[in-house]
Design brief:
Elements (H helix, E strand, L loop, with lengths): L1 E4 L11 E4 L7 H9 L3 E5 L8 E5 L3 E4 L1
């Protein structure tokens, strides 16, 4: 799935296009979800879903159709 960031995340400004991560994230999104209490997923700038990846709160993503 393709998303647009609605908030800056790390060095990626709002408006950046990101994609669902298709590789194992070693529990990073789960850890961030537990730590913050807000659901996170792992995303990437790579259209194929490959690394590098970073986590982002689901509420900071706008799905692109």
């Amino acid at each position: 799935m393709k998303y647009i960031l609605t908030h800056s995340r790390f060095e990626h400004p709002a408006g950046t296009v990101v994609y669902d991560c298709q590789v194992h994230d070693y529990g990073l999104a789960r850890d961030d979800t537990i730590y913050t209490g807000e659901e996170h997923i792992s995303v990437t700038l790579d259209e194929s879903g490959d690394c590098p990846l970073f986590t982002v709160p689901v509420s900071h993503l706008n799905p692109v159709k």
